[in-house]
């Protein structure tokens, strides 16, 4: 869901009777080489999200689902005071290493649970890059983001486009578009064997209505186009993304 990864035919897994909490993303291990740089993120999703986020100098910014700290580092180098968290211990370890010496506080935290170490009305901006696909219920997450944002604060998040996997001829029609479905696929770029990753796909209305129900005001909705540089480094994905969006990027205001 959150990468133009190498896919395989899958069977959808029911969401009922699942334990609460966010799913984990692939992470490096002793037997899995660290993933190669992602042209999809660096030249597609990340520039679009960054344009929505705007100037962060001298601002308090939360990097929710920070992964290995790529965005946290950039935020700090642009003058923000960053509170970052991720559910995966291996990722937080990488984030701390990447952000050493910068104004970044990195913790382990679950998007699906209260962010009780973050005070109400304390964040000028919240960035959640490609992490919400691993959370089954979005409304509580958006509500918690609303709690920690200052009045006038902004939320910028990106997710897999709801139609992308649904339109895949290998999976289309396997489940109801209007339901929240748990998808599984194999990701390339992490070494062999390719890790099997599960995430959630949901209808677009559930994303936007969940945002509204949490009292956020939708300010901007973007289906990004790839940067021109991708045509050189990854022409196949450039051609694909120029005609069919993989992600959505959203900005909302408290």
Automatic annotation (TrEMBL):
<dbReference type="InterPro" id="IPR029063">
    <property type="entry name" value="SAM-dependent_MTases_sf"/>
</dbReference>
<keyword id="KW-0808">Transferase</keyword>
<feature type="region of interest" description="Disordered">
    <location>
        <begin position="11"/>
        <end position="41"/>
    </location>
</feature>
<protein>
    <submittedName>
        <fullName>Methyltransferase domain-containing protein</fullName>
    </submittedName>
</protein>
<feature type="domain" description="Methyltransferase type 11">
    <location>
        <begin position="62"/>
        <end position="157"/>
    </location>
</feature>
<feature type="compositionally biased region" description="Polar residues">
    <location>
        <begin position="26"/>
        <end position="41"/>
    </location>
</feature>
<dbReference type="Pfam" id="PF08241">
    <property type="entry name" value="Methyltransf_11"/>
</dbReference>
<keyword id="KW-0489">Methyltransferase</keyword>
<dbReference type="InterPro" id="IPR013216">
    <property type="entry name" value="Methyltransf_11"/>
</dbReference>
<dbReference type="GO" id="GO:0010420">
    <property type="term" value="F:polyprenyldihydroxybenzoate methyltransferase activity"/>
</dbReference>
<dbReference type="GO" id="GO:0032259">
    <property type="term" value="P:methylation"/>
</dbReference>
